[in-house]
């Protein structure tokens, strides 16, 4: 049921090790909540190089590949799944460009980092890669289906 286009669309977002170490988790979660997206999965994980190799398989021939794996395995990551209308595309806009130097102020990278090799956040680049990444990083039982009907405590 996850990964559908439309209001049920889901994307995989990760606060990378530098983002966790710099205490940016709350700020990033806050931005997604306030934009109107729904949190359906969240965990703090330290992942193996094998998982990262699979996650970044398309980049395996790039010169920065091994440095990327070292960076991504250097500390815990906050892995999340966010749901909502056009969330894949909108999340990429909220993040800014891959290279923080090209990211506008107001975006996450434009506000919080300067270096491509320490760019704080990952977000899926298409609905198809979101589906792959969600199933790589999360089990079905780790994703929550919930709606406004259970919002009795929201005033
Ligand atoms: P991400 O997957 O992390 O959201 O990044 P992206 O799609 O915007 O960029 P991609 O080209 O897929 O690169 C993945 C991550 O690799 C690191 N990178 N380093 N020249 C470099 O040293 C270099 N280029 C890319 C970045 O951490 C980038 O986010």
UniProtKB/TrEMBL annotation:
Gene Ontology CC: one annotated term: lamellipodium
Transmembrane segments: 64-85
Residues noted as binding ATP in the record, renumbered to the chain: 16, 64, 92, 98, 109, 119
GO MF terms, alphabetically ordered: ATP binding; metal ion binding; nucleoside diphosphate kinase activity
Cell compartment(s), UniProt: Cell projection, Lamellipodium; Cell projection, Ruffle; Cytoplasm; Nucleus
Entry annotated with the keyword ATP-binding: yes
CDD domains reported for this sequence: NDPk_I
Protein name per UniProt: Nucleoside diphosphate kinase
Organism: Channa argus (Northern snakehead)
């Amino acid at each position: 049921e996850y990964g559908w286009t439309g209001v049920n669309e889901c994307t995989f977002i990760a606060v990378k090790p530098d983002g966790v170490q710099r205490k940016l988790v709350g700020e990033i979660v806050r931005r997604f909540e306030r934009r109107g997206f729904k949190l359906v999965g969240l965990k703090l994980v330290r992942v193996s190089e094998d998982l990262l190799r699979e996650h970044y398989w398309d980049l395996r021939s790039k010169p920065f590949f091994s440095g990327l794996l070292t960076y991504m395995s250097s500390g815990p990551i906050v892995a999340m799944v966010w749901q909502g209308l056009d969330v894949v595309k909108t999340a990429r806009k909220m993040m800014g460009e891959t290279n923080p130097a090209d990211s506008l102020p107001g975006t996450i990278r434009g506000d919080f980092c300067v270096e491509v090799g320490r760019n704080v956040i990952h977000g899926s680049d298409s609905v198809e890669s979101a589906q792959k990444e969600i199933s790589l990083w999360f089990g079905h039982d780790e994703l929550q289906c919930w709606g406004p009907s259970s919002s009795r405590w929201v005033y």
